């Protein structure tokens, strides 16, 4: 026997031993298995434009604590688009929904096939529907905005709002609630089988199994002011109530106005929108703590306004998006990331799918457009 082969054979022998011991541990159980709960529900929060300094500015200037700071797993998301540039909300949502990076302006399509002639990437909503989970989208933006579109449509351009709305009303998603696009009437929506809702009363009148399309006209991003109009956090609570079922659910909630008020450098409004978004996170996390088996993910698609700390204060330094890493906070999966770790935006939905127990081959996945 060739003496040089010996180390190789030994290595193979020990590798085999390792595999065998892992197998036996898997079959027999050792009595010391981790008690990581199985995730059944996912509530995925996107604070549009919310960088780390949006949180710092809000806390410093309002004196409020943020609930999202109490989430046990904390790190960052790296937000670039396909070419490594600063992303917009369309490419950002595509990364967070589909697990792939694309060009700015594109929604749920590959950079190499922007019209989805041959194929497009599956989004998390579609993945969860395939398993029989209920699904929902709640946003303070228009229902056809880039972020909700990333989780419910596949189009060449975010401005194709009619196509986005058409795809949403054919999607089978159980609830899609946001600001009115002005593109549909209650009659048009009814023809698709969806119930048209525009008030909290309409939502409370929904029956089990109803699919609903919400077209609200109040400012959903504002903190509740005692009037009867719904706010983002109230819609979040109502959505959870409707989606809760034994097969689990996936809900995406977007706080859109952290971005909008950062573009215009309106600090007071930005802080109010962020506090209302944080309230929605608290409601969802309290549900998760009571219910168990629920994953809460909080992140942003990109930072807006390049908020910097200078001369003792957090100030906007631009009216555009920046490439800054954004917060990533998780409840319900302690090994989602390592403490303080920064992962790519497109990695986040992949880890959500994994937490839900999907096989690695299930997501990200390419859908044949011709099929
Ligand atoms: Zn923006």
The rough form would be described as globular
Tally of separate helices: 12
Uncertain residue segments: 1-35
Radius of gyration: 22 Å
Strand order of the largest sheet: 6-7-5-4-8-1-9-14-2-15
Count of domains: 1
In the CATH scheme, what's the topology name? Alkaline Phosphatase, subunit A
What is the CATH level 1 assignment? Answer: Alpha Beta
Head-to-tail CA distance between termini = 56 Å
Name the hetero compounds present: zinc ion
The fraction of residues in strands falls at 15-25%
State the total count of DSSP E strands. 16
The assigned CATH architecture is 3-Layer(aba) Sandwich
Query: Any idea what the CATH superfamily is called?
Result: Alkaline Phosphatase, subunit A
Largest sheet, in brief, is: 10 strands, mixed
Summarize the SSE layout with pairings.
Blueprint (H helix, E strand, L loop, with lengths): L5 H23 L12 E7 L4 H11 L10 E6 L10 H10 L20 E3 L2 H7 L3 E9 L3 H5 L10 H9 L5 E5 L6 H6 L3 E3 L2 H5 L7 E5 L15 H12 L5 E7 L1 H7 L3 H25 L2 E6 L3 E2 L3 E3 L2 E3 L5 E2 L3 E6 L10 E3 L2 H9 L10 E3 L3
Helix pairs in contact: 2-11, 3-12, 9-11, 10-11
Q: Can you tell me about this structure?
A:
This protein has 371 residues and is an alpha/beta fold. It has helices at 6-28, 52-62, 89-98, 124-130, 146-150, 161-169, 186-191, 200-204, 232-243, 257-263, 267-291, 347-355, and strands spanning 41-47, 73-78, 119-121, 134-142, 175-179, 195-197, 212-216, 249-255, 294-299, 303-304, 308-310, 313-315, 321-322, 326-331, 342-344, 366-368. It starts with 5 loop residues before the first helix and ends with a strand. Strand 6 (195-197), helix 8 (200-204) and strand 7 form a beta-alpha-beta unit. It is built from twelve helices and 16 strands. The protein has a ten-stranded mixed β-sheet with strand order 6-7-5-4-8-1-9-14-2-15, with helices on both faces. Helix 3 runs parallel beside helix 12 (347-355). Residues 1-35 have low confidence and may be disordered. Helices cover 35% and strands 20% of the residues. The chain has one domain: Alkaline Phosphatase, subunit A.
